[in-house]
Design brief:
The complex is a heterodimer of chains A (about 180) and B (about 150). With about 180 residues, chain A is mainly alpha-helical. Chain A is about 55% helix and about 5% strand. A two-stranded antiparallel sheet of chain A has the order 1-2. The relative contact order of chain A is 0.18. Chain B contains eight helices and two strands. In chain B, a hairpin with a 6-residue loop joins β1 and β2. Chain B starts with 12 loop residues before the first helix and ends in a 5-residue tail after the last helix. The chains are: A mainly alpha (about 180), B mainly alpha (about 150). Chains A and B meet through α1 and α6 of A and β2 and α8 of B.
Chain lengths: ~180, ~150
């Protein structure tokens, strides 16, 4: 079984919108672009890297699932990580999510990713209710000791996704030749 | 080699990247500030002014990917200079964001190619962030394939 995604259903950021609608639109655009880049591939294909890089699309999906709940649930609201991330020995392997994805069934991996996105969206709503895009994170920046604004986290996630989608573009093309913006 | 590319070690790219599109390796600096599938942004689309040289005299119908193809004939110094020169020319956006300007809700002079109307300056700025980030993702893998250098 492989993951599926119809690129015709991809969210597009509205070209004229208020700040929050624009940011959520771009975030959803990149979430859908990533789903598209991973769709139709077998577990073996999701575990392939484009040498000499060691990144894989499966590892990237598990990583982005972690990053979604890491920023929006844990950093912004100090909520605990959901399974399977709550039970990982990160000291033993700081890149656990990248390394273990090769053992995950593609459909189950996508279900984990989609579930983390849903939890992240719900967490965004809770942060917005507390302070809009200026809402401060509960967890503080390690360097300056201050909170992150939800606005920064939203923009950071857009560029995090866009950069990984750049990786995904080249990795996917190396697997089966599929390209596309 | 008749000209350089933006990234040292270019001859190794096709072999290392296999079936990947090698144009990605050659045109990133020009591609970011010149044009892409939806057209250039800050100078022409928003402010309504003309494109800066060399983009103002290109026959885009003859080669819609001119900047990607042309970059192989440029030296690294020429490409970096062009990218740096393109930044201060983003005058349309600068005026819009100045006191009394139209601000982030200001609209572009050109319209979306698929009928969505004019672009807000807010959309253009966020789009350029994600455009750069995605190309930096390409650059991560291309650079690592050339000389092993990587880093976030």
């Amino acid at each position: 079984m492989t993951q599926t995604f119809d690129p015709g259903t991809r969210t597009e950021a509205p070209v004229r919108a208020d700040e929050l609608t624009a940011l959520r639109g771009f975030l959803d655009y990149h979430r859908d672009t990533f789903r598209w880049k991973c769709a139709g591939l077998t577990q073996d294909q999701l575990a392939r890297a484009l040498s000499p890089s060691t990144m894989t699309l499966g590892g990237m999906m598990k990583h982005l699932a972690l990053v979604e709940v890491g920023w929006f649930c844990n950093a912004m609201l100090d909520e605990p990580y959901p399974p399977p991330f709550d039970d990982v020995d990160w000291d033993a392997d700081p890149d656990w999510e990248w390394h273990t994805a090769q053992h995950d069934d593609p459909v189950e991996l996508r279900a984990l990713y989609d579930d983390c996105v849903r939890q992240a969206d719900a967490a965004i709503d809770r942060s917005l209710a507390q302070g809009g895009l200026d809402a401060p994170s509960v967890r503080k920046d390690r360097q300056d000791g201050g909170p992150y604004a939800l606005r920064w986290v939203m923009l950071h996630m857009i560029e995090e996704y866009a950069r990984h989608n750049g990786h995904a573009d080249l990795i996917r093309e190396s697997i089966d030749g599929e390209t596309g913006e | 080699m008749t000209g350089g590319v933006a990234i040292p070690g270019e001859p190794g790219i096709p072999a290392l990247l296999g079936r990947c599109n090698t144009r990605e390796a050659k045109g990133i600096p020009e591609g970011c500030d010149g044009s892409d599938d939806a057209g250039p942004w800050f100078e022409d689309d928003f402010g309504g002014g003309g494109l800066m040289p060399p983009f103002d005299s290109v026959d885009w119908d003859a080669d819609p990917d001119w900047e990607w193809h042309r970059a192989r004939d440029d030296t690294p110094e020429q490409i970096f200079a062009l990218l740096d020169e393109a930044r201060p020319q983003r005058c349309g956006a600068r005026a819009a964001l100045a006191p009394g300007g139209v601000g982030l809700d200001g609209l572009s002079t050109v319209e979306h190619s698929r009928g969505k109307g004019k672009f807000s300056l807010r959309w253009i700025i966020v789009h350029l962030i994600e455009e750069y980030a995605r190309h930096n993702g390409h650059a991560d893998l291309i650079r690592e394939s050339i000389d092993g250098q990587k880093g976030e």
